[in-house]
Amino acid sequence: MTEVYVVGVDMIKFGRFPDRTVPSLGAEAALMALDDCGLTIQDMQALYCGNLGQASAMVGQRVLQEIGQTGIPVVNCANACATGATAFREGYMAIRAGQYDTVLAVGVEQMGKGLLGGGGGASGIPTEGLLGSGTMPSVFAHVGMEHSRKYGTTFEQFAKVSVKNHHHSTLNPKAMYQIETPLQEVMGAEMISYPNTKLMCSVNVDGSAAAVLMSEKKVKEKGLMSRAVRVRAAAMTSDPYTPRNLVMPDFNAVTRLAAKEAYEQAGVGPEDINLVELHDCFATAEIVHYENLGLCADGEAGRLIDSGETALGGRIPVNVSGGLLSKGHPLGATGIANIYEITTHLRGEAGARQVKGARLGLTHVVGMGSACAIHVLEKVN
Amino acid sequence: MPEAETKTAAKPLPVVPFLKIPESGEPYLEGHKCGHCGEVFLGQRMVCAACGTRGQMQPVRLSNKGKLYNFTVVHRNFPGVPVPFISAIVDLEGGGCLKGNLVDMVPNAEAIKFDMPVNVVFRDAGRKDREGNSYLSYFFTPAN
Ligand SMILES: [Zn+2]
To answer: Nearest 5 degrees, angle CA B124-CA B74-CA B90?
Structure first.
């Protein structure tokens, strides 16, 4: 099977663009990714498009209507917050299988403000706030509280995740926000679902990101190896059965299963990884994923955030882009935006937030329902 | 739609299908237990999600006693939902796990203890559907 490379990748600056359309946002990132490797839409043999909000509305085809209707196959993907990563992985798999040598993956989302999740029951009345809470901040509050229950993790430790990621985003011009948020400000912000305050919830934004994937033979033929990044692992899982999983979604087991597979595919361990973009949809989530991805031993995540080892300049920088907490979380675009961030560091092009000497990076997303996707990317030169 | 179908039910309806309201006797929660691996689920199902065994799910009456596994205090919610409230996840004695509101105690995260014993109680949901039907819901209360 051929090795697969990312040769072109980019994302738009995340923000709020109510006057734009979903296809136009997707088209913008697609053109940026093509320009990044000097290719055209005529070079693309297939398009894998990730979007949630218009999942039944042929977003991929409408992107092509904006940038060139070449008649290539389009696969539209929806997989909760793993949507963009799923589209990317489908493209990877098609090249790996030898079906194509050059494909385009696009992730795009246009979102409103406000709470996500909650609501529905089988009966005729809404059950949110009656049978507990199913809003995203509450679901991930429960995730954090389970960690507190096991290991005594504190409100302050969860809050430190937000301080760190907001700080990182001040170095990322493509992040939604570039604002420092000191610990007192994070902890003193409006409480949404304990222990997640407003500043510990990811930002709903509009955004898009795109990547061009290519087989090894084609990369050499096109002379694109100098800025290419090798995909060393592309792992995806659904939630294995665990007790309580159907009542309280278990984001740990699904991530651990994907991490195990990703490290096996790549033939590396967590100690070999130089930087990580993980799914910090809420501050509580980042803490549990430190352990799920093996960045520290079980029960050590609170100590890890306290130590500063996951900050830029530390042992294993996490979410130097600003993460979902501050860069923003346009659901369908997030997975490919993570690929952009890691690729940019492996190319040594990340400017003020560059992780020095980065050779191996890991991206992780997890969508409720559940789907986890992990990619390991490697610097070639 | 025939008029008969839009009439308000004489008795409260169950908030979820696994809340059973017998003609006589107390309401209760019904689970389904796998005859092969023993896992207990809320609601009816054909196949066990834990082990994949078919055709061995048997209804079981769930206990009204349990322990608080997990909670959060919800301070912000959708318009019209009264806050703050405690969203709780409870492990029932003898199997079964469910999420609900923990009531009859102050919604203060510092005062709530993991593993505290709770009871399952049945009360009016305090919400009606568009046809004006009342609903019976389940809640958790501190056991002592
Ligand atoms: Zn079973």
So the answer is: 65
